[in-house]
């Protein structure tokens, strides 16, 4: 087997990733840790988080996690307090990754659907970026990454609100970059 060349690493950096226990989300968290970052993730489901934390401990990955429903403003603030405490007031990477799907057409969606999906998929990333800014600045720079979906480009008949939030996240990331 050929030796893999490591072209870059994240040793000594810190990262916070929303929703990091399944699929691509989990792969992002684990790759950051494998590259040397100290990572904190959050998810809504405590048993899912505990399962991943056990796995990561066995793999000797430098990962921690907490339960957080990022659709809640106060819980996002508590999350950033936790991150600040864990990382001594500094953060190098914020990955706004959490998203909630809703598969209903426009005529079947209700106001609560719109509020929940918007709070989770759009508002959370904006607010977390705002409250993480002092931590990112304290690290001497920092990066904010927004993860969005193909639904920002391709229309799906049963995902009107979800698709709209993903278009908005794309625009938000571009505007925040300015």
Automatic annotation (TrEMBL):
<keyword id="KW-0521">NADP</keyword>
<keyword id="KW-0560">Oxidoreductase</keyword>
<dbReference type="InterPro" id="IPR002347">
    <property type="entry name" value="SDR_fam"/>
</dbReference>
<dbReference type="InterPro" id="IPR045000">
    <property type="entry name" value="TR"/>
</dbReference>
<protein>
    <submittedName>
        <fullName>Uncharacterized protein</fullName>
    </submittedName>
</protein>
<dbReference type="Pfam" id="PF00106">
    <property type="entry name" value="adh_short"/>
</dbReference>
<dbReference type="GO" id="GO:0016491">
    <property type="term" value="F:oxidoreductase activity"/>
</dbReference>
<dbReference type="InterPro" id="IPR036291">
    <property type="entry name" value="NAD(P)-bd_dom_sf"/>
</dbReference>
């Amino acid at each position: 087997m050929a030796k893999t060349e490591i072209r870059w690493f994240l040793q000594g950096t810190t990262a916070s990733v929303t929703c990091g226990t399944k699929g691509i989300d989990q792969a992002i968290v684990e790759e950051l840790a494998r590259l040397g970052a100290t990572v904190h993730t959050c998810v809504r489901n405590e048993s899912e988080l505990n399962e991943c934390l056990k796995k990561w401990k066995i793999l000797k990955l430098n990962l921690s996690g907490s339960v957080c429903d990022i659709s809640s403003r106060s819980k996002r603030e508590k999350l950033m307090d936790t991150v600040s405490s864990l990382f001594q007031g500094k953060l190098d990477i914020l990955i706004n990754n959490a998203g909630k799907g809703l598969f209903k057409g426009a005529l079947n969606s209700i106001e609560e659907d719109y509020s929940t999906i918007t709070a989770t998929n759009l508002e959370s990333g904006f607010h977390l970026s705002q409250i993480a800014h002092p931590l990112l600045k304290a690290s001497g720079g920092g990066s904010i990454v927004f993860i969005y979906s193909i639904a920002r480009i391709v229309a799906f008949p049963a995902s009107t609100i979800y698709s709209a939030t993903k278009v908005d996240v794309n625009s938000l990331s571009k505007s925040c970059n300015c």
